[in-house]
Amino acid sequence: MTDFALVPAHNEAENIEELIVRLRKHKEIELIVVDDGSIDGTPEIVKGLGVTLLTLKTRKGKGQALKEGFSHVLQKRPEAKYIVLIDADMQYLPEEVPKILEPLKKGEADLVSGYRNFSNIPYRHKMGNFAWRTLFNMLFGVKFKDTNCGFMAMTREAMKKMVDMIYGGYIIENAIFIQAIKNKMRIKQVPVSVVYHRISKIARGIRVVAGVLIFILLEGFKYRLGIKD
């Protein structure tokens, strides 16, 4: 197989089996789940379904989980040509994986990201995403429709540029875009469906929005000034 789906998961016992069953309908795609220190039985469910499982013994965040998955693919799966990233919480539809992969297979892009219909997103999340997207586009000189969609796909060569990134939470998607921009990758966005199961509490939402804005601001100024990490 040349197509792989990489699934970071933390305490997703409620959703992981359904996700795997629906992803398996795409018989040309091999699944890899990276368990991020779950304590609710998530890894046992994955093992029982016969899916490749990588395990972090303690919770280290989505960024570290993705790094673990990237390293595994690059070191042990030489046949992997295209890699899809999809969260385990069923916010994105597994049925739309081919839509995410298509621009890569047509040679139109190195990195593909979904963009959501924000009319289907809770108001607080919508406002946070608007602030992130507006600041990101302004500082990096792009016109992205969505800068925080966790449904992505990339080529193997693009993944090589991402493997050393370690970020958690809502920062990771921005970090991936920044790496792609710095490396002059071809980036394409396609519309995807979104289903929200959880709405952040106000206090947590404020912390998340502020944290991502600070990250974009700092990285954006470094990019504008030509400062390298």
What does the secondary structure layout of this molecule look like, with pairings?
Layout: E1 3-9, H1 16-23, E2 29-36, H2 42-48, E3 52-56, H3 62-76, E4 82-85, H4 97-105, E5 111-116, H5 123-140, E6 152-155, H6 156-162, H7 171-182, E7 187-192, H8 202-225
Parallel strand pairs: 1-2, 1-4, 2-3, 5-7
Antiparallel strand pairs: 4-6, 5-6
Helix pairs in contact: 5-8, 7-8
Report on this model:
With 229 residues, this protein is an alpha/beta fold. The protein contains eight helices and seven strands. Strands 3-2-1-4-6-5-7 form a seven-stranded mixed sheet, sandwiched between helices. α2 (42-48) links the parallel β2 (29-36) and β3 (52-56). α5 (123-140) runs parallel beside α8 (202-225) and α7 packs parallel to α8 (202-225). The N and C termini lie far apart (35 Å). The mean pLDDT is 93.
Give a brief description.
With 229 residues, the protein is an alpha/beta fold. 44% of the residues lie in helices and 17% in strands. The protein has a seven-stranded mixed beta sheet, sandwiched between helices.
Strand order of the main beta sheet, please? 3-2-1-4-6-5-7
Q: Oligomeric form of this entry?
A: single chain
Number of strands: 7
The separation of the N and C termini measures 35 Å
Rg from alpha-carbon coordinates: 17 Å
Roughly what is the average pLDDT, rounded to an integer? 93
Number of helices: 8
